Structures are given as C-alpha cells and as structure tokens.
UniProtKB/TrEMBL annotation:
GO terms for molecular function: endonuclease activity; nucleic acid binding; zinc ion binding. This is DUF222 domain-containing protein. Residues 393-417 are annotated as: Disordered. Transmembrane segments: none annotated. It comes from Nocardiopsis eucommiae.
Length: 417
C-alpha cells in the first residue's frame, strides 16, 4: 500500500511539462477509480466486522458510520454513504449495483445514490400496492442501473432525482398521498412581537412550494450583486412586492398575464390519469403530483412535445397556446358571482380560477360554454376526485385487455385550439 502511495505521490509531484495536462487529468481519473475500488472493498470488510458484533469491542463504537466518522474524521454524509455501500455489498442485497461498482460502471458515490434512492422508495412505498419490499427494490435497482447506462453522464444528484421519479412511477399513489397529507397539514401564522416586528411562517405541500418559489423569484427586485442583500432579504422583498400587487390589482377587470412561470413536463397519459407512466416533473427534475398539474392547467400555457421514450430527447415541439385566454375567461364568468361548485360555494368570483367543465385532456374545448369559475379549494377537490376516477377507469381498461399487449398505451389527444 505504501509503495502504491509513493508511486502516486511521485507522479503528481513531478514538474508539470507543457502539454501534459491531459495525461495528469487522465491519471487523476484513473486513480480516483482505484480509490473507489479500495473504498468499496474496505467498506465491505468493515461491514462484516460490524455484522459479527466486534466493532464495539475492537473499535469502541456501536455502528459503522459513527466509527468511520471519528476514525477517518469525515462528515456524517460521507460516513453514511460508505457504511451503506459496505453493508449492501456484505449482505448481497443489491447484487447488480455491487457488480457494477466492482466493474467500474458505477462510482462509489453513484452506487451509494442508487442504494439510498432505492431504500428511501422502499420505505415510503404503499405496502398495499407493493406488498413485497424485495421485489419493489429489485425493480427500482434494475430501473436505475438501466437509466445510468442509457445516460452515462448523469450526475450523482441526477441519479438521486431519477430514483425519486422512478419511485413515483412504480408507486404513483405515493406522490398524491404525500401531497394530500402535506396539504391537510398546511398552515400559516403571522405573529407580532412587542418590539414592533413580526414573524410569518407558512407550511404546506411541495406543489405549493413550487408556486411560491416561482412567485418569490419573479417578484424579487432585479438582482444586483452590489446591493449586499441576503437571500432572505431578497425573498422578503419579492414576497412584499407580490403582496403589493395583490392589494392594488384585486379589483382589476382585466385578468393580468401570469408573472410567475413554472415549467412542468408531463406525459399526456399521466395527465389523463394512466398509472405506471412517467410522473410530471419540473425542469430540475422534481416530481409534481398529477392532481396539482391538473389544478394549475386552467391558468397555463401548453406546448406539445414529442419525446423519444428511451432517451427523453425531444423530437418535435408544437406551438404554444393558453388553455383559457383572458377573453374567454371574462365571457365565461358572466352570470357568475361566486365559485360555480355544484354543491354551492360563496367564494367571490375575483378569487376563482378558470376550470374546464369537460376536462381539456378528455377533449373538452376551451370555449365559453365549457369554462366555469372555481375557487382554489374546489378546483383542488375536483381534480383530486377526478384523478381517482380516471385512474380506476385506466386500471379497468388495462385489466380488460387480454392478452395484455406489450407497448405503451396510446395517449389521449387533446383538441388543438
Ligand atoms: Zn368554491
């Protein structure tokens, strides 16, 4: 081991000759791969010591991550990563990941991301829909390794996001369940202090966080690196700008154009409620519940993309159009004074959103007769109920096919406006 270290030290201590930078970078990459292999075998051996109960007696710590944190003086994240990969290899629970790591197809960090992503998804899965944790883990592992093989340049962070998306695909109800639970727990408090200041706190679902982020971002003052403002101050200013706009434009007859943009990519089949398809994601890969996308759609601009299924490459981009134009909204809302929820609702018109009576993705047209005003509560409720009904419909349709043909289910065709 010492000889290997001396050789490496000698190589990197050499005077760097002009034109040799490429070679140094190559060697550094190679060395890093060797270090990954060493770390892998070392972590496996250490996991064995932990498993046979000798870690406390010999090393003075109960678990491996704690022992590594203190003995190697590394961060908790690094220690957990190493302990996870070591235990996995020792137990043989992720055979394909361990093999890929041994063969250099995965780096140590990537292997750790795969294992952590799968374990998180297994823990959060719905055990009624997916009763067998081993089978669920195997499906996830297989899918993630295939994803990495198809897109070798995916970063470790990208792999973590892919794990989240894959979990959502294998367990589509989870995202809706989390969304519903977080929304049910929502709240905000505004408390004044004696010193003349206040504290505002709000909590809710991740889908609402997306909207809030977009608003804070778009209402923030133009970024000026010299202004010396902290991120928190910028967010505060953005928030107060949005508040100011809400106050002054409340009675506006003319609906304003959307100032805060969120880009969401959703397969047409997912939007229609078909399970087992890719989930809706933001540009940075965060999963958005289908019901939340449906809810936002009435106020959205839509663009059809044709995407190559395996690689995600965009083959064709359609033109962009607003689901409900301000003109249609004004005309459709005539005759209403409140939210048009069928069971009655007193929320005034100015706080409602445009909603398609027959859903747009089910062929409903964006015409005056097919648009109604709904308050945010009832818009949310309508889409929550509607999504459940559509999922049952798709499930019934898929069961009705015999024998089940391979290949994707044809996407529903929304009308071109
Ligand atoms: Zn309502």
């Amino acid at each position: 081991m010492l000889a290997a270290r001396e050789e490496a030290t000698a190589f990197f201590s050499r005077e760097l000759a002009p034109g040799c930078e490429g070679e140094v970078l190559d060697q550094a990459t190679r060395l890093w791969e060797h270090l990954d292999q060493i770390k892998h075998h070392m972590a496996t051996a250490l996991a064995r010591i932990e498993a046979n109960g000798q870690l406390l007696g010999e090393g003075g710590q109960r678990d491996l991550a704690t022992w590594m944190r203190h003995s190697f003086a590394i961060s908790a994240t690094q220690a957990n990563e190493m302990a996870t990969v070591g235990r996995t290899a020792m137990r043989g629970t992720f055979p394909d990941t361990t093999r890929a790591l041994e063969e250099g197809e995965l780096s140590f960090g990537e292997a750790a991301a795969v294992v952590a992503g799968v374990e998180r998804a297994v823990e959060k899965r719905n055990s009624t829909d997916n009763p067998d944790p081993v089978l669920f883990a195997a499906k996830m592992e297989h899918g993630l390794l295939a994803f990495k093989q198809e897109r070798p340049n995916t970063s470790v962070a990208g792999l973590g996001r892919a794990a989240h998306q894959m979990g959502a695909r294998l367990d589509p109800n989870r995202v809706e369940r989390d969304h519903e639970a977080a929304h049910a727990q929502r709240g905000a408090t505004l408390s004044r202090t004696f010193g003349g200041s206040f504290l505002f706190q709000a909590w809710g679902s991740a889908a609402d966080a997306l909207r809030l982020e977009a608003v804070l971002e778009s209402y923030a003052n133009p970024h000026d690196t010299d202004d010396g403002l902290s991120r928190a101050q910028r967010d505060y200013d953005g928030f107060m700008n949005a508040v100011g706009r809400a106050q002054t434009h409340q009675e506006c007859e003319k609906p304003s154009s959307p100032a805060a943009l969120i880009n969401i990519l959703i397969p047409a089949t997912t939007l229609a409620g078909c399970e087992g398809q890719d989930p809706a994601t933001t540009q940075d890969g965060r999963v958005v519940p289908t019901s939340a996308v449906r809810e936002l759609l009435g106020e959205s601009v839509v663009r059809h993309l044709m995407v190559e299924h395996r690689t995600g490459a965009v083959l064709d981009v359609g033109h962009e159009y607003r689901i409900a134009t301000p003109q249609i909204k004004v005309a459709a809302f005539v005759g209403h004074t409140t939210c048009a929820w069928q069971h009655g609702c007193d929320v005034p018109l100015k706080w409602t959103q445009a909603d398609h009576i027959v859903e747009w993705w089910q062929g409903g047209r964006t015409s005056v007769e097919n648009i109604q005003p709904l308050c945010s509560t009832h818009n949310r409720l309508k889409h929550r109920w509607g999504l459940r009904r559509d999922k049952r419909m798709w499930a019934g349709r898929q069961r009705g096919r015999s024998p089940s043909p391979a290949g994707p289910i044809p996407a529903p065709r929304p009308p071109r406006e």
